[in-house]
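Supplementary material to the annual report.
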Amino acid sequence: MTMNRETLINSILAVALVAVPLIALGMDEPFIITLATKVAIFAMAGVGLNLVLGYGGLVSFGHAAFFGIGGYAAGILASHALNYEPIMESPFLIEGTTQMIIIWIVALVVSAFVALVIGAITLRTSGVYFIMITLAFAQMIYYFAISWPAYGGEDGLSIYVRNGFPGLNTLDPISYFGLCAAMLGLAMLFSAVLIRSRFGLALQGARQNAQRMTAVGIAPFRIRLVAFVVSAMITALAGALYADLNRFVSPTMLSWHMSGEIMVFVILGGVGRLFGPLAGAALYIILEHLLGGVWEFWQLPLGVLLLIVVLFARGGLVGVLAGERKHA
Amino acid sequence: MFSLFLEQLLNGLQSGVMLFLMASGLTLVFGVMGLINLAHGSLYMVGAFACAAVAAWTGSFWLGLVASLMTAALAGALVEMLIIRRLYNRDHLDQVLATFALILIFSEGTRWVFGSFPLFLSLPDFLTGTVVVGSSFEYPIFRLAIIVAGLAVAAGLFLLIGKTRLGIRIRAGEADRGMIAALGVDIDRLYTFVFALGAALAGLAGAFVGTTQSIQVGMGEPVLILAFVVIVIGGIGSIKGALVGSLLVGFTDTMGRFLLPYAFATFLDPSSATAIGSALASMLIYIVMALVLFLRPSGLFGTEA
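Predicted assembly:
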């Protein structure tokens, strides 16, 4: 592969993501490390969404549901473990855990199951219906989390001690950043391999021309459903990491604002580009940090910026910098 | 128990009528211009704030109501001419994002101007009492007034769409925009009008609902999502569908919240019955929506998916 501008930008992004926290470590600025961790996690949520949104052309406005499910998997399992209350005792004993690996597995399984159900219903529709129904399902889970009192309801659930990972002190900011960045790297690698595979080609083919896919013997529905489930799983994993970063999970993680934000990461960076979510999440967090420090109402200029990107810079940040348009 | 039931039934009707004012604008804009407008909830909020501000300034609720209509319509027309117009030929993703950006701008702008504290509307005196029917049933007058006003507006809208020349143009715009442009209808002005009409209805709904709850930034968002559920159930683009969907959602939501805890109490202990009942009630309309879509993927009155 020749080194075109997009590859160059991608390399700069990847190097910056790793270099900034390391410099911050040297300058003893743990807050910046936390910001970088947030970027990595949000980027990962975006990588999940990008799979259906960018490559599959399916505008899911409900990915906060999976982000929140991942978060609640971490919160609920940890709270049971920390309070020494088993999740259930009969017919067999299930206890909580503070091991991230087990939490991640639970997050993956639960989100996959929920995505399978939601996807099976929503993917029967398309266009605006799909947007609104994914949104509505996410709201349903949101309201459920608010009105279900067992795990904090509206107030959310605290994770008193960040969950553990073998051989790593997760409470150390730079170690936790390393873990999150590694997970982001894995997610991006997986997504890169997936979109180049037969499956990924079929998914993109279904976006470009579903009828033709059907004609060559590939059912778009199944391809899309699998993509939807995989996408949800990646986003859920990011959610579990996010809950552990904040040591707190609340229905906010499930709210439609969150869905919108994950979408903004993807669009701001560049739809259907591997490094788009990373660029978008980084820009978002930097803006939040810079503008938020100057002006209480920083979301107003953010909205204006977003509007400008949508109206005039359709390839997102990576698209503008790389100076070429991607085939839509 | 019966009077409580009746009261909840009326509350359901009220919420359905208010939803219709929101949903009709959304569905009109989608039907005529093919635009999905997330910022519709912001116009609802703008209406409520305008009403509260003008009512507090002039001391007249009626002027507030007029202000809510005018401000929301004006804001709608302005937004349409400046931004929304550029989105008609874009895909839905661009529309979602641009209107999401508009929400950020409207919400933060309102917070900037009015602060984070909720506002309250006080009603004219003759609307503050209750209506007493029979021996045990009471219902607040202003809630009845909201129902009547909402129904009147809904009827007016049906007349406008069904009987007037303008309505014919709107419906024609829905059917074939190229053709009516060729017939000499100024399509840009028609679109601005339709958008402003939807905005005015949303603003009015915001002002009405502002009498029953506090007026604050973000108040439009839950209603917006309910309105989405309504138009998905009714079939996007169909005003009749919006009416049926609004009433269905209004009644299902209100009655579910009221009845489900009782239903669960018949076989569960009271505290878990309340917990499960209210959790399930908050999900009920989405379950109804999923059911409708499962049976009819394009909604009850929709023509195409």
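The longest strand of chain B covers residues 130-133.
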